[in-house]
Amino acid sequence: MKFSIAMMLAVMTACTSQISENLETTPADHVTTLMGTLSEYALSTGNTYPATALPWGMNFWTPQTGKMGDGWTYRYDAHQICGFKQTHQPSPWINDYGQFVVMPVRDVAMFNEDDRASWFSHKSETAKPYYYQVYLADHDINAELTPTDRAARFRFTFPESEKSGIVIDAYDQGSYIKVIPEDNAVVGYTTRNSGGVPENFRNWFVVKFDKKIESFSIYDGNTLKKSAGQHGGALSTAELKADHAIAVIGFRTEKGETVNAEAASSFISEVQAYTNLKEVSGKPFDTVRDEAKARWNDILGRIKVSGGTVDQYRTFYSCLYRSVLFPRKFYEIDGTGKIVHYSPYNGKICDGYLYTDTGFWDTFRALFPLLNLVYPSVNEEIQQGMANIARENKFLPEWASPGHRSCMIGNNSASVVADAYMKGLISDSDIETLYSALVYGTEHVHPEVSSTGRMGHEYYNTLGYIPYDAGINENVARTLEYAYNDWCILQIARKMGRPEEEISKWERRAMNYRFVFDSSSNLMRGRNADGTFQEPFSPYKWGDAFTEGNSWHYTWSVFHDVQGLVNLMGGEDDFCRMLDSVYVVPPVYDDSYYGVRIHEITEMQVAHMGNYAHGNQPAQHMIYLYDYAGQPWKTQFWVREVMDRLYSATPDGYCGDEDNGQTSAWYVFSALGFYPVCPGSDEYAIGSPLFPEAEILLENGKTITMTACGNSPENRYIKTMKVNGRSYDRNYLEYGDLAEGADIVFTMSANPDTRRGTGDASRPYSFSRK
Q1: Residue 265 has pLDDT above 70, yes or no
Q2: Can you give the pTM of this predicted structure?
Q3: For residues 41, 46, 52 and 57, what is the CA-based torsion angle, rounded to 10 degrees?
Q4: In three state form, how does the secondary structure of 444-498 look?
Q5: Phi, psi dihedral angles at 333 (to 5 degrees)
Q6: How far apart are CA 341 and CA 424, in angstroms?
Q7: Nearest Cα to 207, choosing from 132, 270, 283?
Q8: Pairing label, strands 703-709, 742-749
Q9: How far apart are CA 218 and CA 212, in angstroms?
Q10: Which of 222, 341, 394, 612 is the most exposed place for a label (fewest CB within 10 A)?
Q11: pLDDT at 698 > cutoff 90
Q12: Are the C-beta atoms of 49 and 74 separated by less than 8 Å?
């Protein structure tokens, strides 16, 4: 059969149009919530779970493959699901609170965790931010769920069965269940938690069904306590307060019959849980799903990237999805429309906003700067919540889940507050409260949670460092972070117009990093109270004087004064040689401090980048430090290496713990071409844009457009750069310029330009260059 050229063109045009149409997807469609879920205790590729939720939503939902209380609640290599869990878990290391499980079963006798578990396949699983679906093979049930901020809808498609049912498991360690047949509802509370809560902590929940309850059973663990309806008797309300309360409601189903359920919870009361249920009440499943998808597309769509590959889009938007989950809302809206919250800091119901589930040691670096640039209205609420925390106890949190948790080091609430305040996101009244709390934290340690406040402040505030022989672990890391934190407090104090005496104190302390610098090795090193350095010293020793890293990693933690560090090392050439060495030295390590190889060490080794450990936060900014020392092309090279090699939208898609959005936010910023090395300043160090085109739609109506001409995997180096039509030789962008909208044009090359960005005026901010 012969085709004319015109016919061939017509066919080709039609095919091309069809292909283009098929490839058109929304940002939410690019996201896989399974990124990072192929993780275990010994090796993290994210340590994530597939969170079905709204951005910053109070409640997340996830399929549960692990046992009750297991921090690895979902593992990609697992084969069975035992329920759909409402979760507030920020990390497997922190674990969960406010958790309960909903699980459909084909036989009400299959109620406990082991018996109800069903085999499933990823081939019959859909994992999106706004929708989760899976086929439960052992029950022949198709399960679907979709979320709102504080509620969710379920849709279960059952087989033909006389014994179909739904299990509501309130977990052990103290729980309560009440079955209300006349309302087709189950209410209760769970108290199971991993810390950070007062004694009166409760997570109240309500689950309602559109199918009449024909029978029910209530258990304490495996022990039957109450049942009704099995023999045709009348059903009436029944309840149980026990260690481990479980309710199973039963009904008959036809093949293909759909049973809908709606669930909500509250940290305040059962009444408030019913109020929160109104988020889904009366809405069909598909409507809730479509609204959730629209919300995700709105939030993810604030950044638009184009010109990349499908895999790059998937990785970018999956990382952006992770960047807008935490910190989560912990506030609720009562029946009168008033914003209130249960305070995990004093156990009372208080007015105003509160967010939680974040560790500032991780997220001060890039996650909060991303919020400040792209989602400032959200961080305004978070900062109001921080001020509320300060009013509800004497300390600001350093790791909150939901209240103070003993985890990590530093006083990085100072960074989180400073970056928001310097960008105009905190009111005058709130900054007074926050500043007072920050100052208090520099001179105190929380009486129950030693990671809140400043451990070792007595030494630091007098000697200028925490001695290696003072019996305080991770002393060098604490010293370095406290010095940066003092610089952050200095920025706040200056803007507030605080007395010169205070300002001088913070200026002096911001330089304390110098006390733990050893010029003989050009590395940071433990120092004893008498001024001598620790002996023996190995720059490969993890822990000890450092936190989840070694001296090669922590030496660069002088975010606010890179020039000062350059000077200590003898100048730019020596500085860059030391920085080069991180990628050149083999991935050797000393784990004697821990007595075992921790997973972060393994993740450094397998990355095949020498001693660079991108899988943990202390090293993530160091790639950008070449911008400060006249060799920006090396930043451009290594940023692309990390993005291309260590991230992918796959179950093993991260190179270490994702950590509440920080490791994801690193990718988001880096893919756009710049990164906030020093939160609290108004500058971003320039890297290498991943996409030929990108737009950031700011909340003030302005737009940042970025074009990278000739961009490709090989063309990773910046040849020329223009900002708003003018040639631009600096290695940084300023927040003030970006906030007004900007047109940024890069011309990319396969060869590094060793002249561009090498002048003194091209360096980003350093305290020593003030």
Answers
A1: yes
A2: 0.96
A3: 100
A4: CECCCCCCCECCCHHHHHHHCCCCHHHCCCCHHHHHHHHHHHHHHHHHHHHHHCC
A5: -115, 115
A6: 25
A7: 270
A8: parallel
A9: 17
A10: 222
A11: yes
A12: yes
